[in-house]
Each structure stands twice: as structure tokens, then as C-alpha cells.
TrEMBL record:
<dbReference type="InterPro" id="IPR051785">
    <property type="entry name" value="MMCE/EMCE_epimerase"/>
</dbReference>
<dbReference type="GO" id="GO:0046872">
    <property type="term" value="F:metal ion binding"/>
</dbReference>
<dbReference type="InterPro" id="IPR029068">
    <property type="entry name" value="Glyas_Bleomycin-R_OHBP_Dase"/>
</dbReference>
<protein>
    <recommendedName>
        <fullName>Methylmalonyl-CoA epimerase, mitochondrial</fullName>
        <ecNumber>5.1.99.1</ecNumber>
    </recommendedName>
</protein>
<feature type="domain" description="VOC">
    <location>
        <begin position="47"/>
        <end position="176"/>
    </location>
</feature>
<dbReference type="InterPro" id="IPR017515">
    <property type="entry name" value="MeMalonyl-CoA_epimerase"/>
</dbReference>
<dbReference type="GO" id="GO:0005739">
    <property type="term" value="C:mitochondrion"/>
</dbReference>
<keyword id="KW-0170">Cobalt</keyword>
<dbReference type="InterPro" id="IPR037523">
    <property type="entry name" value="VOC_core"/>
</dbReference>
<comment type="function">
    <text>Methylmalonyl-CoA epimerase involved in propionyl-CoA metabolism.</text>
</comment>
<keyword id="KW-0413">Isomerase</keyword>
<dbReference type="Pfam" id="PF13669">
    <property type="entry name" value="Glyoxalase_4"/>
</dbReference>
<dbReference type="GO" id="GO:0046491">
    <property type="term" value="P:L-methylmalonyl-CoA metabolic process"/>
</dbReference>
<keyword id="KW-0479">Metal-binding</keyword>
<comment type="similarity">
    <text>Belongs to the methylmalonyl-CoA epimerase family.</text>
</comment>
<dbReference type="GO" id="GO:0004493">
    <property type="term" value="F:methylmalonyl-CoA epimerase activity"/>
</dbReference>
Length: 176
């Protein structure tokens, strides 16, 4: 037993030292310039607006965040134009949107068929000029899921960027 523990400790130390190996550094852009001058565009990326979670049981999920974690939780908001019912969870510095399918054509229904327990659906980042962002991203060959900006759940213009062009993440841009 002592020999096994000694071998395990040696392996752990070896692994730890490999994890401690220097990582090549990449210099970040200077933050002394406004972001639009750095990127050469006329729009700026803003704060994280929300993380959207697809859930198979909206009431159960809302109760978890409200009763177990103590978060401020909205009532269920049906958004038939988007094919979802939403509960907004206020986290102070950002929000979560709990999404549940509303109707058979809901994009969330397909997501939940593949992910029975639910899971992260998308992130939403604010931009200061959504039309300029869309034009700039098209030039950069970033695809969107729709041809045009639409009005989102918060009553503001939004567009979704294709996850295959965004590191596997569905990204929603929302006008700040």
C-alpha cells in the first residue's frame, strides 16, 4: 500500500510540474486606444448581457434559481414570435435567460431533443452599433443565422452568429 501511495504521489508531482511549464505569452493589444481604432471598425463590443439556458421544465428551473439560490426571477414570459417562453434570472452583474420551447417549430425544441437535460444555448453580448457590427462581420466572413437584425426578447435589435464561425458557441449580439 505504501508503495502504491508513493507511486501515486510521484505521478501527481510529475503532472503538476508539467502543468507548471511556462506557457508562451501573447501580448494583448494596448488598451490606451479606443476599441474601434484597434479593430478598424465603427462598432464596439460591450458587456455580457446574458447567458441563455435551454430547460426541459421551466417552472422547475425557475424554482431552483429562486428558492435554492435566492436569485430574483421573473414570471414566465411567452414570446411566440421567437417560439420560446422565457424566465429572466437577475444575477446583479448580468442575467440568465431560461428558455423553454413554445410550439413545435421552436428552435429550443430541437436543442432539447439533442440535449434532454437542457444546457447552455447561447451567450449574448451587447454592441454599440449592431448594423455596423453586422456589416463588418459579413466582410470578415462570419455568418449569421438570419439575413436581418430582428427584435429580441428585451425589445432591442439582435442577431445570432453561426456557432461554426464562433468557436462552437452560438453568439447573440444585442444593440446596447
Amino acid at each position: 500500500m505504501a508503495r502504491v501511495l508513493k507511486a501515486a504521489a510521484a505521478n501527481a508531482v510529475g503532472l503538476f510540474s508539467r502543468l507548471q511549464a511556462p506557457i508562451p505569452t501573447v501580448r494583448a493589444s494596448s488598451t490606451s486606444q479606443p476599441l474601434d481604432q484597434v479593430t478598424g471598425s465603427v462598432w464596439n463590443l460591450g458587456r455580457l448581457n446574458h447567458v441563455a439556458i435551454a430547460v426541459p421544465d421551466l417552472e422547475k428551473a425557475a424554482a431552483f434559481y429562486k428558492n435554492t439560490l435566492g436569485a430574483q426571477v421573473s414570471e414566465v414570459v411567452p414570446l411566440p414570435e421567437h417560439g420560446v417562453s422565457v424566465v429572466f434570472v437577475n444575477l446583479g452583474n448580468t442575467k440568465m435567460e431560461l428558455l423553454h420551447p413554445l410550439g413545435r417549430d421552436s428552435p429550443i425544441a430541437g436543442f432539447l431533443q439533442k440535449n434532454k437535460a437542457g444546457g447552455m444555448h447561447h451567450i449574448c453580448i451587447e454592441v454599440d452599433n449592431i448594423n455596423a457590427a453586422v456589416m463588418d462581420l459579413k466582410k470578415k466572413k462570419i455568418r449569421s443565422l438570419s439575413e436581418e437584425v430582428k427584435i429580441g426578447a428585451h425589445g432591442k435589435p439582435v442577431i445570432f452568429l453561426h456557432p461554426k464561425d464562433c468557436g462552437g458557441v452560438l453568439v447573440e449580439l444585442e444593440q446596447a
